[in-house]
Amino acid sequence: MTVEADTLREALLTGSRRALAKAVTLVESTHPDHRRAADALLEGLPDPSNTLRIGLSGTPGVGKSTFVEAFGMRLCERGTRLAVLAVDPSSARSGGSILGDKTRMERLARHPNAFVRPTPSARALGGVAARTRAVIRMVEAAGFDTVIVETVGVGQSETEVAEMTDLFLLLLAPGGGDELQGIKRGVMECADLVVVNKADGALMAEAQRTAADYLGALRLMRRRRTDPEGFPKALTISAVTGLGLDRLEEEMSALIAWRRESGVFDRLRVLQDQAWLEAELRALIDAKLRDTALSDLRAELEAALRAGTTTPRAAAERIVASLFSTDRGSSA
Ligand code: GDP
Question: Residue 215 C-alpha to ligand 1 middle, in angstroms?
Answer without folding.
Answer: 22
